[in-house]
Write a structure and sequence with these properties.
The chain is mainly alpha-helical. The chain has six helices and no strands. It is 72% helix and 0% strand. The longest helix is centred in the N-terminal third of the chain and has 22 residues, at 2-23.
């Protein structure tokens, strides 16, 4: 059982680190989507723990938080001038108010680092951390993402 947990943690961490390394400074819709999928996968791993669908595992939580933190650090750099064409989910507000966009990403990263430093000890703690991190994500999506359906 412990081996499965370690493998899951490595998978979450690996996807985040590899995804960040591959997508860094690419600026394409595909790179942006890949980075957000890393965050979504990390949040999903934490959500499964918070909901009791998966047992609490500190290594999985650490890996997920590291993925969120590291991805948030590089994500704003994917939106350089001239990359606004062809991305139907990215609002023009990203380029119009890039300072706020960067600040929101920095806050997400800092909040993930803070949670990591005081790692939640159980599923309830992971749920609390998700509320904080989710608030960051939701606020940014509200302002800077175009809803595509």
């Amino acid at each position: 059982m412990r081996l499965k947990t370690i493998a899951a943690a490595l998978l979450v961490a690996g996807l985040g680190v590899v995804g960040v390394a591959i997508a860094a400074d690419d600026g394409t819709h595909e790179a942006r989507s890949a980075l957000m999928k890393n965050v979504g996968g990390a949040a999903g791993a934490m959500t499964a723990i918070a909901k009791g669908e998966k047992p609490y595992d500190a290594e999985v939580v650490k890996a997920a938080l590291m993925t969120i933190s590291e991805t948030a650090k590089v994500f704003p750099d994917q939106f350089k001038a001239g990359t606004e064409k062809g991305d139907k989910a990215a609002s023009p507000k990203i380029w119009e108010d890039h300072a706020d966009f960067k600040a929101r990403a920095a806050k997400l990263s800092a909040d993930a680092d803070e949670v990591l430093a005081q790692l939640p000890a159980d599923a309830a703690g992971v749920g609390g951390a998700l509320k904080t991190l989710g608030g960051n994500c939701g606020g940014c999506h509200e302002k800077f993402r175009i809803k595509t359906e």
